[in-house]
Amino acid sequence: MFNNERQVQIEWGDCDPADIVFYPRYFAYFDASTGALFEAMGVSLRYIRDVLKTVGFPMVDTRSQFFKPSKYGDKVTIKSEFTEVGRASFGIRHQLFNDGDLAVECTEKRVWACLNAEGDLKAKTIPDDIRAKMLSHG
C-alpha cells in the first residue's frame, strides 16, 4: 500500500523537563505525517475540503507503543503507510525511527467523513480514485 517518509527535528518546545519528547507531541507528529501521506499521493486537504466537499478523515482509534525516547535536537524519520482501506475507513501505521532504531509505533483508524444536511458528521465512501492511490505501491 502507499507509503511516505519524512524527517522531523525534535524542537525544544516538544520536550518535557527531562529533555525527552512529551508523549502527546508524538500524536501531533503522526497527525502531520497522515497529512503528508495524503500530500505525497497528490491529494491535499484543501482539495478534499474545497473540491470534494468532505470534512476530511477524523480519528476513531489510535494506539502507540514507545520503545526508545527521543530528545531535543534529535533528527528522526517517520515512515507512514496505509495498512487497510475499507469502504469509508482506513488504517495507517506510523513508525518513528531515531538513529536507526524503532522508537515509537502508532496505528490509527480514520473515517472519511462529511457533514449531512443537518450538520452532523457522517461517514462517506472514499472516492474510487483516492482509494486506488491508497492501495497503490507509491
Description:
By secondary structure, this protein is of the alpha+beta class. The chain has helices spanning 24-40, 45-50, 128-135; strands at residues 3-9, 59-66, 75-85, 89-98, 101-111, 113-115, 121-123. 22% of the residues lie in helices and 38% in strands. The protein has a 5-stranded antiparallel beta sheet. It has a two-stranded antiparallel sheet with strand order 6-7. It has a single domain (3-135), classed as Roll (Thiol Ester Dehydrase, Chain A). The longest helix is centred in the first third of the chain and has 17 residues, at 24-40. The chain is elongated and about 50 Å long.
Topology, please?
Elements: E1 3-9, H1 24-40, H2 45-50, E2 59-66, E3 75-85, E4 89-98, E5 101-111, E6 113-115, E7 121-123, H3 128-135
Antiparallel strand pairs: 1-3, 2-5, 3-4, 4-5, 6-7
Question: What's the quick description here?
Answer:
With 138 residues, this protein is an alpha+beta fold. The chain is built from three helices and seven strands. Keywords: Hydrolase.
